[in-house]
Write a structure and sequence with these properties.
InterPro entries: Aminopep_P_N, Creatin/AminoP/Spt16_N, Creatinase/aminopeptidase-like, Pept_M24, Peptidase_M24B_aminopep-P_CS, X-Pro_dipept-like. Pfam families: AMP_N (PF05195), Peptidase_M24 (PF00557). Its cofactor is Mn(2+). It is a single chain. It is built from 18 helices and 17 strands. It is α+β, with helices and mostly antiparallel strands. The protein folds into 2 domains: 167 residues, Creatinase/prolidase N-terminal domain (Creatine Amidinohydrolase, Chain A, domain 1, 3-Layer(aba) Sandwich); 266 residues, Alpha-Beta Complex (Creatine Amidinohydrolase), CATH 3.90.230. It is globular and about 80 Å long.
């Protein structure tokens, strides 16, 4: 990576404009001559984009802002995108805008802030963004975040066309917020500079109400969101097919080959992976969030692959399949797998409008408890096992969660609206029962130890029941074997 000559101070943008751009301590050039500085100001073509159309979800984001306005009349609402985070020294992590900001605007650039100013009729929205880097003061080529180093930003005029929101220079926002009066709320945890400007104007309790509302607003997906979730799932299906085709190469290397194979599909067809891929072979499948992915891949064992592609608009799939690495389940693996499949079938059947969110969890857990009693691993009756939660030694986790722009979406929602709530058409959730027999679990027969099985699908609640968005991936054990054989040729 080349050296940028200088670095801005992103925490104090106002100072950046007034002070000369600082040279990197160990840069190879001692400075910039007046002649070079003057030369760099001119001779550049006009690159303004004049024929931009609004983004595909512009109408959807406008409707979301209208709902937000109706909920908090007369109050200024501040929703930041967040800032770049340092990975090491002067390199940053890839930026991902806050979900609240992206949900309300469709914009994904760092340092952006949506401000909803109260009016007699509701709110006026303004999108505060960094404008294109300045050519007059040399920022565009001297700053580490200048466009010759990290790429072109949209101009404020272009942003207005894309997002359907008036745009202003974000570097002026902190000062304006310090002087502002009247009630205000901010989504915390994303932009320390904006929060500092509001420190004497907000309370944690009121800000949390804003965050909760925006989390609950995402419980029911609109048509655009459902289409994006299906797109994410479709790419994920192709990613799973990619993995099956290279299992021989994974056996020759490690779980990292599986991780890299799926990541390629995510980056080619989407924005990224939606979360750290779990590529858990053999006994690693009993570790729920195994993301080290550095273990051996051995014929005769199982691979638990839990992975999802994230679309360019941040919607993610979340799918799990447990696959026999050599293409065939042995007798015990099949028995355990089929039990989990039966539990998942019961859970999916319980997903329907008007049902309780907990219903699919309870249905799946009952089947698993019945199997554990039947196999003699826990003493019945089943009602006793469920009442005491004894099955959790081997099932461990809840059977699913809401899905959307976060893999565990709507997490700030009130309990009565989410886990104790009622399912509605447009909600999207996972159904993912599992059984995990730890390698050191002396309460089960030795042959069970080190076997982990999870099957997970993304389920959309519809008007008359549900739709499995990931149904293109086989689930039944015999279908899985046939699918793998076909992909391996």
């Amino acid at each position: 990576m080349s050296d940028a000559l200088n670095a801005e101070n992103p925490e104090n943008p106002e100072e950046t404009e007034e002070e000369p751009i600082k040279q990197r301590k160990n840069g190879l050039y001692p400075g910039v001559s007046d002649e070079l500085a003057e030369n760099m100001k001119s001779g550049w073509a006009d690159t303004e984009l004049y024929d931009l159309r609004p983004i595909a979800q512009a109408d959807n984001t406008a409707a979301r802002r209208a709902a937000l306005s109706a909920r908090f009349p007369g109050e200024r609402l501040v929703i930041p995108a967040g800032n770049l985070k340092t990975r090491s020294n002067d390199t940053e992590y890839a930026f991902r805008a806050s979900v609240e900001y992206a949900y309300l605007t469709g914009n994904q650039t760092e340092d952006g802030v949506l401000v909803m100013e109260p009016t007699a009729a509701g709110h006026d929205a303004t999108l505060y963004l960094l404008p294109r880097s300045d050519r007059e003061n040399g920022e565009f080529w001297l700053s580490g975040q200048g466009e010759l180093w990290v790429g072109r930003r949209h101009s404020l005029t272009e942003a207005e066309k894309l997002y359907g929101i008036p745009a202003s220079d974000v570097r002026e926002l902190a000062g304006a917020l310090r002087e502002a009066t009247g009630p205000v709320r901010v989504v915390r945890g994303h932009d320390a500079g904006i929060e500092a400007a509001l420190t004497d104007k907000v309370t944690a309790e009121r800000d949390e109400e804003l965050r909760v509302f925006l989390s609950e607003a995402r419980l029911v997906k609109d048509d655009f969101e459902i289409a994006e979730l299906q797109k994410a799932v479709d790419s994920t299906v192709r990613g799973f097919e990619d993995v099956v085709k290279v299992l021989d190469k994974a056996e020759a290397t490690s779980e990292r080959y599986i991780e890299g194979t799926f990541f390629l599909r995510a980056r080619v067809e989407g924005n990224d992976i939606g979360y750290g891929s779990i590529c858990a072979a053999g006994p690693h499948a009993t570790t729920l969030h195994w993301v080290r992915n550095d273990g051996a891949v051995r014929s005769g064992e199982l691979l638990l692959l839990d992975a999802g592609v994230e679309t360019h608009t941040y919607y993610t799939a979340d799918v799990t399949r447990t696959l026999p690495i050599n293409g065939r389940f042995d007798e015990l693996q099949k028995k355990i797998y089929d039990a989990v499949y039966e539990a998942q079938e019961a859970g999916i059947a319980a997903v329907k409008p008007g049902g309780k969110f907990r219903d699919f969890h309870d249905a799946s857990q009952r089947v698993l408890a019945e199997k554990l009693v039947e196999w003699g691993l826990v003493e019945g009756p089943v009602e006793r096992v469920l009442e005491l939660g004894l099955q959790r030694r081997w099932t461990l986790h809840g059977t699913g969660h809401m899905l959307g722009m976060d893999v565990h979406d709507c997490a700030a929602a009130r309990q009565e609206a989410y886990v104790d709530g009622t399912l509605e058409p447009g909600m999207c959730l996972t159904v993912e029962p599992g059984l995990y027999f730890q390698a050191d679990d002396l309460t089960v027969p030795e042959e069970y130890r080190g076997i982990g099985v999870r099957i997970e699908d993304d389920i959309l609640v519809t008007e008359d029941g549900n739709r499995n968005l990931s149904e293109a991936l086989p689930r039944r054990s015999d279908e899985v074997e046939a699918w793998m054989a076909r992909l391996k040729g």
